[in-house]
Amino acid sequence: MSALVVINPNSSESVTAGIAEAVAPLHPFGIPIRCETLAAGPPAIESQAAADRVVPPLLELARTLEPEAAGFVIACFGDPGVHALRDETARPVLGIQEAAVATALTLGQRFGVISILPASIPRHMRSFAAMGVMDRLAGDRALGRGVAELSDEDATLAALAETGTALRDLDGAEVLILGCAGMARYRAAVAAATGLPVVEPCQAAAAMALGRIALGQSHRPGG
Amino acid sequence: MSALVVINPNSSESVTAGIAEAVAPLHPFGIPIRCETLAAGPPAIESQAAADRVVPPLLELARTLEPEAAGFVIACFGDPGVHALRDETARPVLGIQEAAVATALTLGQRFGVISILPASIPRHMRSFAAMGVMDRLAGDRALGRGVAELSDEDATLAALAETGTALRDLDGAEVLILGCAGMARYRAAVAAATGLPVVEPCQAAAAMALGRIALGQSHRPGG
Amino acid sequence: MSALVVINPNSSESVTAGIAEAVAPLHPFGIPIRCETLAAGPPAIESQAAADRVVPPLLELARTLEPEAAGFVIACFGDPGVHALRDETARPVLGIQEAAVATALTLGQRFGVISILPASIPRHMRSFAAMGVMDRLAGDRALGRGVAELSDEDATLAALAETGTALRDLDGAEVLILGCAGMARYRAAVAAATGLPVVEPCQAAAAMALGRIALGQSHRPGG
Amino acid sequence: MSALVVINPNSSESVTAGIAEAVAPLHPFGIPIRCETLAAGPPAIESQAAADRVVPPLLELARTLEPEAAGFVIACFGDPGVHALRDETARPVLGIQEAAVATALTLGQRFGVISILPASIPRHMRSFAAMGVMDRLAGDRALGRGVAELSDEDATLAALAETGTALRDLDGAEVLILGCAGMARYRAAVAAATGLPVVEPCQAAAAMALGRIALGQSHRPGG
Amino acid sequence: MSALVVINPNSSESVTAGIAEAVAPLHPFGIPIRCETLAAGPPAIESQAAADRVVPPLLELARTLEPEAAGFVIACFGDPGVHALRDETARPVLGIQEAAVATALTLGQRFGVISILPASIPRHMRSFAAMGVMDRLAGDRALGRGVAELSDEDATLAALAETGTALRDLDGAEVLILGCAGMARYRAAVAAATGLPVVEPCQAAAAMALGRIALGQSHRPGG
Amino acid sequence: MSALVVINPNSSESVTAGIAEAVAPLHPFGIPIRCETLAAGPPAIESQAAADRVVPPLLELARTLEPEAAGFVIACFGDPGVHALRDETARPVLGIQEAAVATALTLGQRFGVISILPASIPRHMRSFAAMGVMDRLAGDRALGRGVAELSDEDATLAALAETGTALRDLDGAEVLILGCAGMARYRAAVAAATGLPVVEPCQAAAAMALGRIALGQSHRPGG
User: Which CATH number is correct for A98-201, 3.40.30.10, 3.40.50.12500, 3.20.20.80, 3.40.50.300?
Assistant: First the structure.
């Protein structure tokens, strides 16, 4: 039976494991979910150059997996290769950033984004603008911690809570988005700390992708 | 076991039946889906006044059903009562219009909407603007057929194909949204006629709602 | 002689009295102004659910009063029922929120809104977005006082001055809007405290409505 | 008693006479309305250069009239000098373009503009964008007739009806704005021909200005 | 002496030759201009997947050329790798799409784009949205001719004139952008055929890049 | 040989001298640059009224200089007369504000503006909105120093650094624009103090104008 294939385009197996755990509540839907690590990717994707460089091997991996794939999620905030992959497959393709935003649009009027590093923010802004949702953005604030540092749980959670609170109180966010696939395990804690709904983007994308698989819905008419 | 409750706020059982059929492919997800008709509603909702008038009985029905509800979908394009119901329940609540738009955002750069009557369009425009997605809207064109007339299949399909083609060729739509719950059965035919992906809004909303139920995600942190 | 009918959709007579006082400077225009309280409304409208619930009785009251009405103002920030009432009457209909915004657009480049409670802000944001004026919005800040507490004059004025000053200095507002019909009496004091022009929304709506009555102008061609 | 001063910044007395006639229904409001012609202006203002050149003499005229003025309307679509005059007087100042747009925002979701010449349209677009209302604009179409030709009633009315119909049917306008002070007398006829509400901008501005005079409201706090 | 390096990311030498000819009028500025072909690129870039795939070799080529480069232009409409290259060099980097748009913003209020194929348009739309300039876009219309077919001069010019005229007359464009590096030689002819200013994007980008080199201006402070 | 004519519309020769120094790095391009002072202008342009009043003499000066002019730059942030001058000449015309914004769009995702006085900001906002780039604006903050005070170098630089840092840290600016022609000499120092690229608007406009002269590109097809 074909599966939803979730590709982590960085090479960190621990991130892939976090994603797999995040999407586990969707297993009862009955469609297998395979979480794959792009071995050719860098340990973390923290620049546009890094994001752009993973696209060719990511497309290659997707092509290899396509026969067993019912659909794809690209699990890097920034959505590298999402539109390119749609050029190459009729299967549903979701990026975690676009899915998180689409989800947040129905959870509160203005969304706030917790990014890892300040350098991520301009990249996100370009994406939110390309999505046409700038009027829904409350703010995007950086945690100031790279992907590698996210594994220090206490320090990360404290920084997440502080950043989320600033987005709520200073920027007017009513819903938060975790702006990196590597923050997957912190959703409930951030919700508790801020009193806001929190969107974990891998969950958002996997849920949307499973719906499309069930409905036979993709970016192509006979998708 | 609690169910996703889909409320058709008009009193037409045939529309409710069409919705039930549209969401049937989501049954394998394992969460029951109950489609309810708002008996107190009008046969069709074709004005803002009609939409506003259904909200109090709709909230009443939702309150009655809440103990058995894992989440709600309000199945009227225009999303009457969606924000009000969110004030009153912690369960996930999705409107079919907002869900269709959120879905379309990830299927093509500009979406076109097939409305029933010209008078629906300003209402839709207010909603799309309130969602902040006007730059993604290719156009909204009316079929010129009321809800009651949608049951004449051949004429309706011809009008749908013609309207969808105009949205594609004159307005630049890359994805179409069926702008009425009563068009549910025509999705595949419109996709075939236009060569575009077509979003059926009840499907879009039910799929999103099921994902949220599985993920424990709503507009409230402990939702 | 028919009158401009101003409907306060909450049941607080003191709010209606404040509205009547606010619009008194328009009496010399020669068109009678009747301020009516919606007895069926709640004491205050502080949620979307409350706003939605007043629409059916409000439409009923308007229908009753229509023979004597030259036009209508719905005097609740949030404009419940404004579009619905336009479906049902050819008389001019103004909501105080839309009229306040339309007025503010000609008084300064960016407007700030003083809301009563934080929960009002998302509702306002949806309305400002639906009006398409988000780029003109400097900010919307809550007073943190409910409608009932607005009668404590000293504390209310201090909070209004502080909130208005924050909108001016932190958000860049050049004109302020009092975001609740119940703040009518504070316009001059807030203007003095902030040095900014201040729009009282009932005044703004009544003035626009009287102009339309005189000009024979409504949302319908023969209005 | 001080008056609302309406300044026609072109030198055509016939245009001033048309404006005076258009605002006559506002006489019962009890505030005198004086319509003045800027003798130093050109016969028609049909370019940005012409619009910019009238500002200094217009400011001079306003300064001379200020002692007798309760407020000002600048009666040229394009609003030359409106912001400059606000720098120089505390009296209410309205431009007919901004007032027409502010009025149209409460009459329909998308407004269409009937301009005189194609060259007017970019100027209008800059103004609508500066007002932040581009998402409310259905379209702006030129009549193809200069100010001088507007006096040929039959030909002008035929062109107005045709242009208004195109704005309604091709662009989706729900309300029309007459985009030139010289079209004042055609409001009712265009409404009849198109079945849409039609805003005559001098009326819109004069009505708003009278309201502000009565309410003691201007762009300055003690205005 | 270091040069402005213009990289054509497709492998068609004839396109590179056309670019070189287009930028020749800038030789008197005294900064050498080197036009390079990305041998690793495809003959034409007609999809997002193709655009994404050229980025890694393009970054590699830029890295090789950097010691001799005073600045870079990436000469593919769609701007593949522009933001990535900015991550990797302090030299000025311009994409031809962004430079063409920035140029057009100062030549007319609404710009029209002549694309090669319909499939290019969604890609352009995402870019224009990411640039935040959607309100300045009149329209984007496809020529219906691939890069390879652009060498048939008569047929291409006829199609360009027809497309440009549609952008002017149906969409309201006041300035046109040639939406492909391979149309460079047609600028004057399209201007003559449409009576509109026409921006050739390689010229626009090269001119901007030379200015930055002279001024010591890049995306980095000490650029 | 005809020259690029840069007109400083205020009468301060010291500002003109600063502009001349700023554009000096562009002399190697081989096109002479003449910097002219509008003797009829005020010492500083610090209001819309002042800006509007300089347009007629500025157009007069441009007309006189046109025979020797290859193009024009109007060197006052606010761009008085730019569109008017385009009505009157086929030569390239650039305003320093629009050129600075167009340049900044390619240097960072959000630009911050350092204005002289708070009263300048609404004027700038109207211009940025008219340009359709509000989503790219991080913020506009006033230095709190008039044009005359800009000559006190130490105090001005301290204020520039503080304001630029606030735009970077509080508003999210990635690129700064000096919002007054009189700040020309501070570009490098502000870049050093903030670590951001800084656009000096006279440089930006002169560079763009020289490119257009070389390319034979203006707002008219045969420009």
Answer: 3.40.50.12500
